[in-house]
Amino acid sequence: MLRIHFTAEDLTRTTVSPSPDPLWEILLSGFRLRERQRTVIHRPWARALRSIPQARTASVRAGYTVLDVLAPMGPYFPDFLTPPEGRQGLAAGLDSLRGTSRRELYRQLERLGTRRPLPGWVRPLAEGDQDALSRLAGTLRAYHEAAVAPFAELIEQSIAADHALRVHSLVNGGVDGLLASMRPVMRWRPPVLEVDYGVDRELHLGGRGLRFVPSYFCHRVPVSLADPDLPPVLVYPIAQQFAWSTVERRPGALDKLLGPTRGAVLRGIGAGATTTELGRRLTISLASVSRHTAVLREAGLVRSDRDGAAVLHAVTPLGRTLLDADRG
């Protein structure tokens, strides 16, 4: 278990990223490729990779080989693979990776080497060889372009829905509400956040705050950096109900996800409808329509715009994809 200790100052500096970190997604997607039993969420993605063009397949295999060595599915992988600059995008993250100091490379790869034998091609990396670092960055970039970027729309939609939930929890319950929304993988017992984790650790934030980063490829337990002196970050798996966009299509699943009335409201909006029109179409009260559209709006499935005295509701691209999936 990971126990994260907060001070009052840490609570004011805690943030939730609205988007995934591309370098973390590279690393975590490599984990998913190595699993023998994949979750229903990631099976369609893994199947899609088997049908990609040969050129992209070569990039996936090269990335897989590198990640299998440098980021093993164990208690430790080097922090230089996921620098803080990754929050600014793939290019910034890879630039930071290339600029990792020789001291840090040697220290982190030496630690990795105590856990498993490393192949000869790792030695130039540990020595800070710039050509070796550039090759590594190029391999990771090509892997991202082949294995992650083609699914960007689905990943972004799923993470947007999860982010809407976290923002709603934060707005309505403050940081306490945000942390409580992270159950069951985390449990907020003020002033400590208990996180399901692969090893037993204590992390004292010391006024630095904590940055939560949602991840499509993170599964079951969150992950964090090994070095407690680095800017604190916790990468967490998005709530599974928001990863529907890659789940195999099953007609009727919409009502199980949203509830029959809320599902009917989403379907009833169609190409657009006012609150009054929805009430008439579904024979429910205007107050009920307003409650359900508010929830759908907070989840990123619906947008609502005032048109004079009326409020016009429209289905977002995220909501449209959900409707398409429900129809099979």
Structural features, described:
The chain has 328 residues and is of the alpha/beta class. The protein folds into 2 domains: 2-241, no CATH class; 249-327, Winged helix-like DNA-binding domain superfamily/Winged helix DNA-binding domain (Arc Repressor Mutant, subunit A). Helices cover 50% and strands 13% of the residues. The chain has 14 helices and 11 strands. The strands form 3 sheets. It has a 4-stranded mixed β-sheet. A 4-stranded mixed β-sheet has the order 2-6-8-7. Strand 3 and strand 4 (192-195) form a beta hairpin. Helix 2 (22-34) crosses helix 4 and helix 5 (90-98) runs antiparallel to helix 8. The longest helix has 29 residues, at 152-180. The protein is globular and about 70 Å long. The relative contact order is 0.15. Mean pLDDT is 88; it is low at 245-251.
What does the largest sheet look like?
Answer: 4 strands, mixed
Q: Which value, in Å, is the CA radius of gyration? A: 22 Å
Class inferred from helices and paired strands: alpha/beta
Oligomer type: single chain
* Continuous helix count: 14
Strand order of the largest sheet: 3-4-1-5
* Unreliable residue runs: 245-251
Percent of residues in helical segments?
40-55%
Number of structural units classed as domains: 2
Mean pLDDT metric: 88
Q: Tally of extended strands?
A: 11
Give the overall shape, derived from the CA principal axes: globular
* Strand fraction: 5-15%
